[in-house]
Each structure stands twice: as C-alpha cells, then as structure tokens.
Specification:
Layout lengths: L1 H45 L2 E3 L22 E3 L1 H4 L7 E2 L2 H6 L3 E4 L1 E2 L3 E12 L4 E5 L4 E6 L7 E2 L4 E6 L1 H15 L5 H12 L5 H10 L5 E5 L4 E6 L6 E2 L4 E6 L3 E9 L11 E6 L7 E8 L9 E9 L10 E9 L7 E4 L4 E3 L2 E10 L2 E8 L1 E6 L2 E6 L6 E5 L1 H10 L45 H22 L3 H17 L8 H17 L8 H22 L6 E6 L2 H4 L2 E5 L18 E6 L1
Antiparallel strand pairs: 1-2, 3-23, 4-26, 5-20, 6-15, 6-19, 7-14, 8-10, 8-13, 9-12, 10-11, 12-14, 15-18, 16-17, 16-19, 17-18, 20-25, 21-22, 22-23, 24-25, 27-28, 27-29
Helix pairs in contact: 4-5, 8-9, 8-11, 9-10, 10-11
Length: about 600
C-alpha cells in the first residue's frame, strides 16, 4: 500500500514537472513564433506597393497589369512617393522617360518679336504711265500688239488717220502762201500742229512735202513695259484717250499685309528681310517706307510698302513675297521668357507645371501665369514665374492627364477631382461619337476655326491616313512608324492658332489623342496597334465633325465585325472601303455611315 502511494506521488510529480517544462519551452516559443509570423506577414503585405509608371494614382498590393493602360506594374518606393505638397503630381523617372517629359530653367532675355508678313510684288505707282494719243482719229496701224513688250521713249507705237489734222495741214499750206504779208497767221498755223504734239522736224517735213499727210505717228513718251493694251486696230479715239499703259519696272514695290494684331509692332523705317517663292535661295532686304494709316475694312490688314531696286528685272509684279520683321519690345527688368510648348491654355487661364526635386523624388505643381506678348516660339511671362524656376517644356499633356486621373488640380479642373468620362477622355469631358453598333450619342458641336488653325491640322490628317493605309496593307512596321509620326505631329500643332471657343475644344481633342497614342512605341503586335487606331479614329472623327478643317470630303466608314463584333469606325479620304481593322483578310468589309464635307 505504501509502495503504491509512493508510485502515485512520483508520477504526479513527474507530470507536474513535465507540464511546467512544456509551458516554459513551448509556451514561450509559441508566443515568439506568433509575433514573428505576424511581423513577417505584415512586411509581405505592406512593404511592397505596385503602381503604374504612366498612372501613378494606381496602388495595388500585388504585381499585375495596370487597369487603365495594361502596362506591367512596377514596385513603388514608399519613401519616394511621399510628397511635401499634397497637390503635386509625382512622376517616376520611368514615367518621365515614357511620356517624353523635358524641362528647362526659366531665364530672362531682351524681348525681340519676330513678325512674319506676306504680300506681293507690285509696280511702283509713280512709274506707271498712260500713253495717250494727242491726235483724234482712227487707229490705222499698231506697232505694239501685245502686253509685256518693251518700248523706248520716242519709239513709234501707232499710226493714226485724223481728218482734223488733215484740215490743219491745209490751213498751214494756205498760211504759207501769205507768210510774207501775214507772218503771224503762218506761225499760228504751225503752233496749231505743235499743239497736237508734232515736233518741229515733223512740221518742216510737212511743209517740204507740199501735200497733207493722212497718217501720223504716235511716239512713246516714256520707256517701259506695256502692261495693258487699250485699243485695237480700227478703233476711233479722242484726243487724250489712252492707247497703252506703260510701267517702268526698274523699281518696284513689295506690299506686305500687316494684320491688325501686329500693327503695334510694325513702324516706318523697320528693316525687312523677304523672299520670293519663284526665286528660291535668294534673300532680299528693304526698309518700310510707308505704312497705311487706314486698315482695309474687308481684309482687316494694312499695307506696308518696301521700295526695291529691280536690277535684272527678277522681281515681277504679282509675285508672292514673304518677309520677317524683328521688332524690339520695351525692355523690363523681369522679362521672363518661356517656350510656347510649356504653356497650356484654357479659357482665360494659362498654366505651367513647375518641377520640384527633393530627396523624396520628382514632382510637378501646376501654377497659373499671366502671359505677355508672343515672341515667335516663346512667350513673355508677366506674372507667375521667376528667373531660375524649372518648368516642363514638353509632355505637359501627360502631366496634366496624370493630375486629372489622380483627382488633383489640372488645367481643365483647377479645383481638382477625378474626371468622370469614358473612352479615356481626360481632356475636358467632351463626348466621343458612338459607333454604329452602340446607342446614339450627341454629335460634336460645330466650332468655327480660322484658316491658320485649319492649316495647322492638315499634317495630322496626312499622318492619320498613312497609319490607316499601313494597317490596311498589314504593314506593322510602317503602321507603328506612322503612329509615332502622328504623335510627334500632334505635339507640334501650334495652340496659338486656336482662339476663343475653339481653343477649349482643341485642348480636349488633343489631350484625348495624346492619351491614345502615348504607348504606340511599346506595342508589339498589329492587333494592339489596331486597338489604338480605333481610339485615335474616334477622336479624329469627333474633331473633324467639330472643326471641319479639310478642304475636301472625308468619309466615316464602319466595320460591324471589328472590336469583337462591337463595331468600329475610321476616317477615309476615299469612298471605297479599305478595312484597316482586318487588312487583306477582310479588305472590303464595311460601309460608309456619314460624309463630312
């Protein structure tokens, strides 16, 4: 009995000791393991954040594709993502390289405005003469029968039969018979002939011949080129009536059009360098000798006159001339000058993006500026920038698009907020036209644009149609090159050509097109390029319907089988269907849905 109790006590003691050791060993290690595992899990979940190089507002906890553009997500350095200014737009080096963002330091310079003028060569009005007949009668012979012929002073240019002159000659003969007794009568008869511009030698010839002449020669009063023939053989003319117009072209005028907006910069005495289209490689120089004091009410231009010596007669009337004047503007102590590509306009606002570099990365902040005069490819900035500021001069649309997507202040939304638009429309919320397979959407409102804006858009259509033709021929390399050229051409369009309501519309359309084209150089297949072409086509169609910039008819064509049988549109300069979405496999699939004249 005692032995059994001893065994039970030993067993209980062993069990108690084992439990104590187990708690000390496994209990403490279990708690440490849990804390370690929790810390490890937290590192995996929170240490690496994945984002898109082109759309930095995208944040994901795992790798994948960007839901906006489909590019591979990249790891984000949280330290670099932190921004001192919550309104700034951060841009990674990769994003800046892909968006072709370039910056420049703002500086000052002497403001020189280069004004371009166009006009024509014209005759010097002071050297244009009307060759008239001093004798009334009938044109018997014309010695100069066409315009452009050169005549010399004193050259016989016509013969006239004049009954009045025949009568005057007979009076002279009668007065000659009694000249000894009445010399005054004889002298009066001779003076009557001289009043008809007959010379002394011609009068003497008449007296020596003893018989009246039926034809009298008309001699040129000046030397020059016949610019107009006003009579024909057999015409009757009165005394003083013009027979020819003769111009001396040894000196000519170059009359240049000065637009109303450029009038403050052009003044008498300015030096002008000009060229003539028909004389390539030659540059002429002249001085403005006269400036019209009154603007033409129809053309809204004034004429600036340059007087040019025309040795060799190379300058001919009606030749087109193009000149430039470098006008110095009033100098100020803070004439800050920036490139035009750095400025984005929206209504009355002009904005730039100022670069900020710190240990936490690169960011851009939008800043309103007040613009002064335009200097060729630059602007004077009156307020908003200082010398030494670094601003974006290329790729500003990409920065603005990133700001809109991130809900931060942008060109079109200075208060911030994400644009609720479709079709990647980040440039102002203008609705794109629907394809024939979708519900009908509002047609773009027609916006009138000037001739300068129409000319600025022509290269866009040239590159777009090349892209369409390359896709039609299944030529991937040529199509990608055309798409890259279209993107580059879009960047070069002069925004200054769009004023008023058209400016806001252009900013919207150009922003959409740039967003559609921003990844063309990275596309690997023709299918991807055709998807991009579909988005570009919708933008081009909407812009064409709004602006109507082409001088020829364009056709909106539709393929119902494109875009996974949803249908897709494109523009063509020909009515014949040549399908860019399928190429040779379904070349004639489609129809013309509308015509833009």
């Amino acid at each position: 009995m005692k032995e059994n109790k001893k065994i039970i006590i030993i067993a209980l003691s062993t069990l108690a000791i084992g439990l104590l050791l187990g708690w000390l060993i496994f209990g403490g290690s279990s708690e440490g393991k849990t804390e370690e595992e929790h810390q490890h899990t937290t590192e995996i979940a929170g240490d690496t954040v994945w984002t898109c190089s082109m759309h930095p507002q995208i944040r994901q906890g795992e790798p994948g594709d960007c839901p906006i553009c489909g590019m591979d997500l990249i790891p984000l350095d949280n330290e670099q993502d932190e921004q001192l200014d919550p309104m700034a737009i951060s841009m990674s080096p990769t994003a800046m390289q892909l968006a072709d963002i370039r910056t420049a330091i703002v500086g000052t310079m002497d403001p020189i405005k280069e004004v371009r003028l166009n006009g024509k060569v014209q005759e010097d009005e002071r050297l244009v003469f009307s060759q008239s007949s001093h004798i009334p009668g009938r044109i018997e012979r014309l010695m100069v029968n066409f315009t452009g012929e050169f005549v010399k002073k004193g050259q016989t240019i016509a013969f006239i039969y004049s009954p009045d002159l025949v009568t005057a000659q007979e009076e002279l003969f009668e007065a000659q018979k009694i000249k000894d007794t009445q010399p005054q009568l004889f002298n009066s008869a001779k003076e009557k002939l001289k009043n008809w511009k007959l010379t002394d030698s011609q009068v003497e010839q008449i007296l020596n011949s003893g018989a009246p002449k039926g034809e009298f020669a008309v001699q040129a009063d000046v030397s020059g080129y016949v610019t107009e023939k006003m009579v024909n053989l057999g015409d009757y003319i009165r005394r003083g009536e013009a027979i020819y117009e003769i111009a001396d072209l040894s000196k000519v005028w170059v009359l240049l059009d000065v637009y109303e907006s450029d009038m403050p910069w052009i003044k008498k005495g300015d030096k002008v360098n000009f060229t003539v289209a028909s004389l390539p490689g030659e540059t002429f120089e002249g001085t403005i000798t006269f400036l019209d004091p009154v603007i033409d009410p129809k053309t809204r231009v004034a004429k600036a006159r340059i007087e040019v010596s025309n040795k060799g007669l190379n300058l001919k009337p009606e030749m087109f001339a193009s000149g430039t004047v470098k006008a110095s503007l009033p100098k100020k102590s803070n004439n800050v000058v920036v490139r035009k590509t750095a400025v984005m306009w929206t209504g009355k606002r002009s904005v730039v993006f100022v670069k900020n570099t710190s240990g936490k990365g690169v960011s851009f902040i939008m800043r309103d500026v007040t613009l002064g005069a335009a200097l060729g490819e630059s602007f004077i900035v009156e307020n908003g920038l200082q010398e030494g500021d670094e601003i974006a001069v290329n790729g500003t649309f990409s920065i603005d698009a990133a700001a809109q997507l991130a809900g931060k202040p942008s060109m079109m939304r200075p208060e911030g907020g994400v644009a609720m638009t479709g079709h990647s429309n980040h440039g102002g919320g203008m609705e794109m036209p629907a394809s024939s397979g979708e519900g009908k959407k509002t047609e773009p409102k027609h916006v009138a644009i000037g001739q300068q804006a129409k000319e600025a858009l022509q290269p866009l259509y040239t590159e777009y149609l090349r892209l369409k033709d390359a896709l039609t021929a299944d030529e991937f390399d040529q199509a990608q090159k055309a798409a890259a050229n279209l993107k580059a051409t879009l960047d070069k369009v002069n925004m200054a050509a769009f004023t008023g309501e058209s400016h806001n519309s252009w900013m919207s359309y150009s922003s959409d097109l740039k967003n559609s084209l921003q990844h063309v150089q990275h596309l690997k297949t023709i299918a991807e390029l055709r998807t991009t072409f579909q988005r570009v086509s919708e933008g081009m169609i909407a812009m064409t319907k709004a602006f109507k910039p082409m001088g020829r008819t364009l056709y909106v064509q539709f393929c119902p089988m494109a875009d996974d049988n949803k249908g897709a549109n494109w523009l063509s300069s020909e009515e014949e269907i040549r399908n860019p979405y399928f190429g040779e496999s379904m070349l004639t699939c489609g129809e013309v849905t509308s015509t833009i004249k």
